Amino acid sequence: MTYAVQQNDRLTAEIIDLTHDGAGVAKIGGYPLFIPGALPGETVEFKVTKTLKKYGFGKLLNVLEASESRVEPPCPVFPECGGCQIQHLSYDGQLERKRKMVRDVMDRIAKLPDVPVHPVKGMEHPWRYRNKSQIPYAERDGKVVAGFFRSGTHSIMDTETCLIQSTEADVVMRTIKHGLHELGIKAYDEHKDKGFLRHVVIRTGKASGETMVVLVTRKRKFPQRDAVVSLIQGVLPDVTSIIQNVNDRKTNVIMGDETIPLYGPGVITDEIGGIRFEISARSFYQINPDQTEVLYSQALEYANLTGDESVIDAYCGIGTISLFLAKKAKEVYGVEIVPQAIEDAKRNAEVNGFANTHFEAGAAEDVIPRWYKDGKRFDVLVVDPPRKGCDEHLLRTILDYRPKRIVYVSCNPATLARDLRILEDGGYRTKEVQPVDMFPQSSHVEAVTWLELN
Ligand code: SAH
């Protein structure tokens, strides 16, 4: 007999699993309930907040028996803020968890139970690691609020600090919040589509110490522009670029098309593994600089280059992995869909003296088949796609032209496993997987996979 779970029920249950986004899973008469903040092995008391046909949600009330891996989350807005999901799990527990998540999809989706998934390479100090923050601003009760969205909503949790972002970002976040109020500048009101400041994006070059502040505004006309610029310079003398980005659309996309420099060169520099990179406001750049070096070194190791290889870096961003590879390869061809990132990549290759690189803007699934049709041949292919994984057409091109080695850098184990199955069926063998923790305290998992043509 199944127990019919009702909304508002107060129940006690044992947590048997953790979802990929960090919620505890309990089963009542076979009916799964997701309870954020609860950990596997714990017995908890919770209130049912929502019931759907196949599963429901609960709010954690009391931990009756705590997991040995439970720690006190240091952040005051955890777990309501959606930024981190597993601060309440010890860091060792987080790393173990992430390895298990990769193992699980390798077994279940890729059907590769024998492929080794190594222990996750983690950080020594898994806090304050982000070099980029994107902070939404809003008006609430006549006051400017700023912080991060309450999990699963568009309601901002007014926050003074975020423990995974830089202290510079904390200072800028607070200063602009209090400063706008004093200057009488309104933050954006999403419902009325009114107000001025939508987001502040802060980027720091860890190696260079340079900081870029991007003010994303609804209109181009900037009231008291100079006062806002001085306000930022006043609290952060090291700020090297201040930029206005205009986004007048009703959209969740943070940045609009128009970028206006207010101060400085409009780019920041950073260094990874002895290579210097220039990064512009809208280009993708890995957010955890310490772990980026670990990630790229792993990709380079799996690429196993001798100096004779022609290599593709698909989804190359500003050419970071490309230049890592170019140190050891005959030549590297990079492709990326954002034209500005390709401009950065070309400049970065030039500044670092890499003449053996070629970059092209476009979709990987369009550009790579064209390179092959033009007669180019490649020995090694590195892919680092966004969460949705590799495009089907790109996978088909790989199976048609069969480069002998593939290194797959992935930020989403589920699509990685899906793509590995396709590549396996097409004749590749997955050798091993090395997860790297790019996002401590969050449930995101990054992994590097090595494949060889059979
Ligand atoms: N390898 C880079 C970037 C990885 S993020 C780094 O480590 O920094 C994934 C990148 O893929 C982003 O820069 C995104 O703009 C790009 N992208 C998304 N879809 C694409 C497509 N269809 N073809 C090429 N690039 C794409």
TrEMBL record:
Origin superkingdom: Bacteria
InterPro entries registered for this protein in UniProt: MeTrfase_TrmA_AS, MeTrfase_TrmA_CS, NA-bd_OB-fold, SAM-dependent_MTases_sf, TRAM_dom, U5_MeTrfase_fam
Pfam families per record: TRAM, tRNA_U5-meth_tr
TRAM domain residues: 4-62
Molecular functions per Gene Ontology: 4 iron, 4 sulfur cluster binding; rRNA (uridine-C5-)-methyltransferase activity
Binding site for S-adenosyl-L-methionine: Q286, Y315, E336, D384
GO BP: any one term: rRNA base methylation
Keywords, ordered alphabetically: 4Fe-4S, Iron, Iron-sulfur, Metal-binding, Methyltransferase, S-adenosyl-L-methionine, Transferase
Catalytic site: C411 (nucleophile), C411
SUPFAM superfamilies: Nucleic acid-binding proteins, S-adenosyl-L-methionine-dependent methyltransferases
Family to which this protein belongs: Belongs to the class I-like SAM-binding methyltransferase superfamily. RNA M5U methyltransferase family.
Protein name: 23S rRNA m(5)U-1939 methyltransferase
